[in-house]
């Protein structure tokens, strides 16, 4: 009886192991900047996904150890490391989703735009390699300033003749994650239920939470609206100041980016009910790029959700008009940078 019990235990364990090792889907994901503050926890979180068969980690240094470490997790994806420009093409071949958190973060006193001079070139070069090696992939841009790096990426892809606006995303999920958290705390709501649309861009006043559109429906005093809006807009700076020179948000960003990756993979896998927010090419306003909720499908953005911008309160309408000049200037700065280099 004892032997039988051991045998059945071993069989169960084998089944468990097989379950863990057998991918349920086989998407390939690459993280560019994988050894960084965001890259490492992001790679860990997406290593848990049953939808990924191959996880490619790229950085200019220190990625071997990260990959060796992660590869011991008994989840389905196979981890491979790629170091430096000479290995970038191999990293990208056949990849379905490319996530880009490469670049420098802010220190206290800096704006995201202060990162432009370094990060613009990094994003240009990485997206050039994406265009050459996996032009059909979903591209998730995390590197700041997102309001400029996404237009840079679009221009590079256009220059290469492979631009598909439905597949290029500036990752603004963290703004929604923060808005949901802060509103739930303030109004004592169950976190799981709260959904606040956040539109515009990803810097200062260009981040516009539409609190009047919070689901479930909830009422705010004018003071609460002002306080919550400003906190959501400054949440990145809140973390930069708390880290006091050691960088910006990494853990909450990794959580948010992992959610966006998982949503993209579900959409690629045929789930017809996937909605996320992102900074994308858009016709919802007179600006060429704008963050809003989008419906994702196998080919990327299927539809934008225009209803979020309808019936805004006076406060929101004013804030929307106020953010446009700054967002327009950041978009144009990115486009000009990419066109000058062409
Ligand atoms: P980090 O310095 O900890 O990591 C960046 C990584 O990028 C490093 O490992 C570095 O080696 C790598 N890198 C630099 N140049 C590279 C290149 N040419 N190719 C590949 N990798 C390269 O920084 P972090 O905290 O991970 O932040 C990364 C970026 O993400 C910053 O620009 C930051 O502002 C941005 N960010 C965006 C959001 C958002 O909501 N979109 C949130 C947080 C941070
Ligand atoms: C954030 O919103 O946390 C990021 O954009 C990083 C930063 O510089 O604030």
From TrEMBL:
Boundaries of every Lactate/malate dehydrogenase N-terminal domain copy: 28-170
GO cellular component: mitochondrion
Top EC class of this enzyme: oxidoreductase
Residues annotated as domain Lactate/malate dehydrogenase C-terminal: 172-337
EC number in record: 1.1.1.37
Keywords: NAD, Oxidoreductase, Tricarboxylic acid cycle
Catalytic activity: (S)-malate + NAD(+) = oxaloacetate + NADH + H(+)
GO molecular function terms listed in the Swiss-Prot or TrEMBL record: L-malate dehydrogenase (NAD+) activity
GO terms (BP aspect): malate metabolic process; tricarboxylic acid cycle
The family this protein is said to belong to: Belongs to the LDH/MDH superfamily. MDH type 1 family.
Subunit structure: Homodimer.
Protein name listed in UniProt: malate dehydrogenase
Organism per entry: Lupinus angustifolius
Parent-protein residues present: 68 to 409 of 412
């Amino acid at each position: 009886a004892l032997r039988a019990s051991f045998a059945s235990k071993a069989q169960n364990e084998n089944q468990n192991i097989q379950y863990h090792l057998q991918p349920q889907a086989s998407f390939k994901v690459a993280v560019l900047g994988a050894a960084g503050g965001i890259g490492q926890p992001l790679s860990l979180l997406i290593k848990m996904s049953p939808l990924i068969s191959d996880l490619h980690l790229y950085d200019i240094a220190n990625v071997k150890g990260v990959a060796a470490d992660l590869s011991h997790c008994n989840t389905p994806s196979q981890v491979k490391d790629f170091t430096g420009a000479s290995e970038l093409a191999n990293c990208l071949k056949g990849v379905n989703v490319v996530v880009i958190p490469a670049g420098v973060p802010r220190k206290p006193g800096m704006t995201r735009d202060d990162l432009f001079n370094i990060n613009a070139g990094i994003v240009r070069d990485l997206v050039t390699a994406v265009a050459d090696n996996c032009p059909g992939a979903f591209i998730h841009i995390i590197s700041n300033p997102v309001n400029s790096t996404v237009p840079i990426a679009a221009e590079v892809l256009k220059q290469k003749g492979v631009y598909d606006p439905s597949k290029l995303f500036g990752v603004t999920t963290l703004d929604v994650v923060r808005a949901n958290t802060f509103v739930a705390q303030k109004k004592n709501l169950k976190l799981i239920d709260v959904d606040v649309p956040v539109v515009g861009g990803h810097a200062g006043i260009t981040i516009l939470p539409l609190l009047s559109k919070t689901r479930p429906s909830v009422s705010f005093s004018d003071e609460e609206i002002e306080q919550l809006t400003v906190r959501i807009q400054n949440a990145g700076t809140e973390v930069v100041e708390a880290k006091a020179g050691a960088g910006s948000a990494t853990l909450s960003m990794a959580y948010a980016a992992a959610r966006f990756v998982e949503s993209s993979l579900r959409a690629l896998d045929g789930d017809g009910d996937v909605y996320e927010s992102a900074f994308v090419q858009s016709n919802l306003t007179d600006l060429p790029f704008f963050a809003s909720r989008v419906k994702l499908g196998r080919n990327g953005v299927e539809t934008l959700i225009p209803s979020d911008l309808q019936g805004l309160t006076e406060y929101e309408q004013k804030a929307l008009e106020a953010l446009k000049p700054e967002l327009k200037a950041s978009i144009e700065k990115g486009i000009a940078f990419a066109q000058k280099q062409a």
